[in-house]
Amino acid sequence: MLASCSRAGPASPVYVPVRNFSRRRIAYPFYPTKSRGRTEKKDHKTNLRFQMEQFLGKKNFKGEYASNKYFSAPKNHQPNYITPDLENGQALVDLQSGKPLDIKGNVLESTAFVRPERKLMPFPSNPFCQTNLALTNEDKEEIYTKVCVQKVPIQEVAVNFGIKIPRLEAVVRLKEIEKKWQKQNRITPEIKTMSSTMYKMFPLFERPRHSDNLSEIPVPVKTLQSRFLTIAESEPFGPIDAAKVFDLEPASETLQRLAETGHHATVSNKKDKQVFVAESAPKDRYVFKFHKAKVGQVGFRYGATLRDNKKDRKFSYDDSGKMVNALPTSG
What are its GO biological-process terms (predicted)? Predict the structure, then answer.
């Protein structure tokens, strides 16, 4: 800021410092907290740090916040996500009884009811993001016995358990690896501890209360790119016609094929391309590789220009359904 003096003589400018305040507001907790009161001069803690210490609780002789309910991993198959909208800052528990404590440190006999679906939400504002349910060890062993020992069709097992075929295939594969490691004595005590800890943290899949959507099919890669088709208003256009536009089979045939062969049938096994590497001298800077390909499918015709900057450029679709510029044709 610029100011002037009114004394006799020429006015001389005087610069006064101006402090610009930020418009940002400190995000204090919305729930009631303890008042800090008067502190000593050597205490330089801010209000936010003081409130954070209230949330964490006191440290023990190991430097751990054992009285905070988020300190240890859950052991009752229920996720222990932070729920600020429900707990109102009551994150401390009594070490003897395990009951929550209020702001003053008194034990609360009753707590607010929390819906089971709410406990599976890691983000309070996103109800569509929920933790998946883990299969019990008994269900995994039963699935492995039915599929590998009793030779029960995997489609029948999927219907009886209410689990998708890809998940059943993954369970069978992991059980095979587990049994192989047991024979080789490769499962150490650390692996067992880690497995049991993770098993107690996740909710369990209970039959017949929980079930997967068995009519769901994997999303084809070709449908990730939109395609436009001009048709008459009176012309019928259904799902089968849409599948023909994307060069796909109808969903009913895909479900039938998945039920007969499993999820691995949707994965296309492409043949390895033949590659020839030319000999190179020690001083050569480049290595030439020759791939086997058909004329017209790769590269461009000599002398033809790309029309990617023209208004009337042509488009085509590759094998994955992605829209690309059409290659120039010869002639």
Answer: mitochondrial translation
